[in-house]
Amino acid sequence: MARITDIAVALVGGAYVLFAPGLVLSFVFFRRDAIDWLERVALSFALSVAVVPLVVFYLNMIGIKLTRLSVVLEVAAIMVVSGGVVWWRVRRVQPRKPPAAKPAPVMGPEPSVPPTKPAPRRRSMDAVGRRNHE
Questions:
Q1: Tens digit of pLDDT for each residue in 2-31?
Q2: Is the pTM of this model over 0.85?
Q3: DSSP 3-state of 94
Q4: In angstroms, rounded to a whole number, what is the distance separating the alpha carbons of residues 48 and 106?
Q5: Which residues touch 66 (CB under 8 Å, ≥6 apart)?
Q6: How many CB atoms lie within 10 A of CB 27?
Q7: How far is CA 27 from the centre of its chain?
Q8: Among 22, 26, 64, 112, which is disulfide-ready with 59 (CB 3.0 to 4.6 Å)?
Q9: SS3 for 115?
Q10: Cβ neighbours for 98, distance < 8 A, ≥ 6 positions apart
């Protein structure tokens, strides 16, 4: 039974460290419909692998000990800060107004429109200034 829980902890922990922070960061860099989900998943792994070790390393350098709890909280902080940036960007964008509805067509006979004469053809000039007769 302990072996199953170890496998579950490894899977959930791996997804938490290697996927979740990058997923939230991908929404910081690209809007929702800017890239498709396959690109977003690949980018999520790449961003997580790049950002999480750097954050853990630099926080360890300033004196925060490297424990399981500290890593969990640091990854959570990355996701909260990134989520805050996404929330701020989405909220800052003004919502688009829906297009104005077209007026309903008027029922009844078509108004009579007098026929128009075609415009007279104009003669063009070539580069030298001579008239081209068409």
A1: 799 999 999 999 999 999 999 999 999 998
A2: no
A3: coil
A4: 60
A5: 56, 60
A6: 19
A7: 6
A8: 64
A9: coil
A10: none
